[in-house]
Design brief:
The protein is built from 16 helices and 13 strands. By secondary structure, the protein is an alpha/beta fold. The chain folds into two domains: 193 residues, pyruvate-formate lyase- activating enzyme, CATH 3.80.30.20; 71 residues, Arc Repressor Mutant, subunit A. The strands form three sheets. The protein has a seven-stranded mixed sheet with strand order 1-2-3-4-5-7-6, with helices on both faces. Strands 8-9-10 form a three-stranded antiparallel sheet, with no helix packed on it. A three-stranded antiparallel sheet has the order 11-13-12. The protein is globular and about 55 Å long. The model has no long low-confidence stretch (mean pLDDT 94).
Length: 327
């Protein structure tokens, strides 16, 4: 089945990819480290990229060996993102992760010894039984490893996931989650806080999203955005393999939707939105059009040289504020 999937993926890429030199390539979603180094290379050969291209692979620490990392490094992958979530083994067991904290540490050290100098760790805060002090220890441990990037995501329990029907005990409250986030900002003060959830060496891939630029999405359940069209692929493996070049969904964005996304995504960056750029791009007067929102939330926004950004208080209620920019 894996070979059938790879053949379908190759067919999709060859059909939709236009051959331009890519600034970033990201192997992520699902479990990319199930691919062998040869299979990574097989897919990379389908793209045009340069020495400046950021090429990231998401890795699960329980399955990584020195030999595997060496091969990834040799074929040109220059950034790795490791799903750590927490360094607390008891919490990892509660949330169903298969790795141990020590495996994350070992993977980071192996990667550094091989030559990787752009390593990111993903963390979740608000996990069952997690305390603010425990989360603080997670971040201090990450800093001690000498990594370049940290991504932080608050736990969200969505309809359809395991925890939705099986609520875990001892979940931190929303206030405790907010305190964890504020603690992270304090602890990671030597990391560049360039986007609400991201700290450290800015990822070209992440910034491409927040700048509302085009990006391809290839593979099962992948999402893409090309020339004002957002699309998604089939989520069922058989459906995808049967017709990999057909998108499950395509949506042509209206001018108003593009404007709203420009605002929504722009505010994710700590530099915020560029009002002059928005005015010229959409032929509007941003401050006049959204004057009521700007006045209502003036205590949560910072006026910058180019426009507006969230202050720390604004970040904590960012979804509430952003919803008011949507007609």
């Amino acid at each position: 089945m894996k070979e059938q999937y790879l053949e379908a993926l190759e067919k999709e890429i060859k059909h939709h990819y236009k051959g331009e030199t890519l600034k970033t390539i990201y192997f992520g979603g699902g479990t990319p480290s199930l691919l062998s180094a040869y299979e990574f290379e097989r897919l990379l050969q389908l793209f045009n990229f340069s020495k400046q291209t950021e090429i990231t692979a998401e890795l699960n620490p329980e399955s990584i060996t020195q030999e595997y990392l060496c091969k990834l490094y040799k074929i040109g992958i220059n950034r790795i993102s490791i799903g750590c979530q927490t360094f607390d083994d008891n919490i990892l067991k509660i949330i169903g992760r298969h790795h141990k904290a020590k495996q994350v540490e070992d993977t980071v050290k192996l990667a550094q010894n091989i030559g990787f100098d752009n390593i990111s760790l993903d963390f979740i805060y608000g996990l069952p039984t997690q305390t603010i002090s425990g989360f603080e220890e997670d971040l201090k441990k990450a800093i001690s490893l000498g990594i370049q990037h940290i991504s932080l995501y608050g736990l969200k329990i969505d309809d359809g996931c395991y925890f939705y029907k099986n609520p875990p005990k001892k979940l931190p409250s929303e206030d405790e989650q907010a305190d964890m986030y504020l603690k992270a900002i304090s602890i990671l003060n030597n990391f560049e806080h360039y986007e609400i959830s991201n700290f450290g060496k800015p990822s070209k891939h992440n910034l491409n999203y927040w700048d509302n630029e085009n990006y391809y999405g290839f593979g099962l359940a992948a999402h893409g955005y090309i020339d004002k069209v957002r699309y998604s692929n089939f989520e069922n493996l058989t459906d995808y393999i049967t017709n990999p070049i057909k998108h499950y969904m395509e949506h042509q964005l209206s001018k108003q939707e593009i404007l709203e996304e420009e605002i929504f995504l722009g505010f994710r960056k700590m530099t915020g939105i560029n009002v002059d750029k928005i005015n010229k791009k959409f032929n509007i007067d941003f401050e006049e059009k959204y004057s009521k929102v700007l006045i209502k939330y003036s205590d949560f926004l910072t006026k910058t040289a180019d426009g507006y950004s969230f202050n720390t208080r604004g970040i904590l209620i960012s979804n509430v504020i952003l919803s008011e920019f949507i007609d």
